[in-house]
Amino acid sequence: MTDATAPPPPDVVGRLRAAGCVFAEDEAQLSAAQATTMRELDALVARRVAGEPLEQVLGWAEFCGLRISMAPGVFVPRRRTAFLVQQAVAAVTARTGTEARAPAARPPVVVDLCCGAGAVGAAVAAALGEIELHAADVDATAVRCARLNLAGVGQVYQGDLFAALPPSLRGRVDVLVANAPYVPTDAIRLMPPEARLHEPAVALDGGPDGLHLHRRIAADAPLWLAPGGHLLIETSRRQAPQTADAFERSGLAPRVATSEELGATIVVGTRSASGGTPCQHPAGEAR
Predict the structure, then answer these.
(1) For the chain, counts of helices (H) and of strands (E)
(2) pLDDT tens digits, residue range 51-102?
(3) What HEC string does 86-103 produce?
(4) C-beta of residue 216 within 8 angstroms of C-beta of residue 287
(5) First-to-final CA distance of the chain
(6) How far apart are CA 203 and CA 75, in angstroms?
C-alpha cells in the first residue's frame, strides 16, 4: 500500500467521491500511499468520509514545499498563508541586508505567534537559513506538533500570546509574524464542516468582529520589536483597514500587502527605527 505510483483501489475513490471530496482520485492516492495495510487504508478513508480534514487524516500537510506534521484537532495551514511567509522573508531580508551582514552579526530574531503546528516559522527558517526562531501557541496539541516541526530549528512555548515568550526577547524581535484567528464569532457557523468541527475554536474565532486578537497583538508588539522591527498579521481584505488602524494606534507605521494569486492580505507594521518609547493603546483598547 506504500507504492505512491500504484492506482488506489476503485472502491476507495468511489467512497471519497460519494462523500463529496472534489479531488477524490488524488486523496485516494495519498491515502493509499500512507497506509501499510488494507485495514489501515480503510480506517483512513473512513475518517475522511466522516469529514476530518485530509491533512489530519494523513498526519501531515504540504506547506511552502515542506511536509508539516499534523494531528487531529490542529489548525491546518492554508495555501494563502504562503503570502505571510513571503512577506516575512522579504522583511527579514530587507532589515538584515543578507549580503552585507558581517560574519559575527547575530542572526535575525523571528517570532511566530499563534504558531499552530509551526508551519509559518518552519517555512521562514527554510527560506532564510540561520535565524533565531521562537514560536508560541495557547493550544497544547498544536504546541506538540510545532515542537516536532521546529525541532532543531527554533524554540516553542505554550501560553497566551506574548505571555508565552521569554522576557529576554523584549525589544529584540526583528520580525514578528502572526496568523491569528480573524473569523468573526457569528461567522464560524458558516465555515466548512471540516474546519468548524475538526479545528480548535481558539484557532478560528477572532471575537465579535474577528479582530480581537489583532488588537491585542498590535497593542503589545512595540514592546517586543527591535527599533525598525516589523509586525506582520494575516487578515482579510475587508478587515485590513481596521487591522491597520490598530497598528497605527500602537505607534506602528502600517501598510497593506495583497496577493491576488493567493487571495491573501497581510498588514505590515514597522516600529520607528529611532527606538523611541512605543505608544500604548488606551486601556479600553488593548484587550
Answers:
(1) 10, 9
(2) 888 899 899 999 999 999 999 999 999 999 999 999 999 999 988 774 344 4
(3) HHHHHHHHHHHCCCCCCC
(4) yes
(5) 51
(6) 6
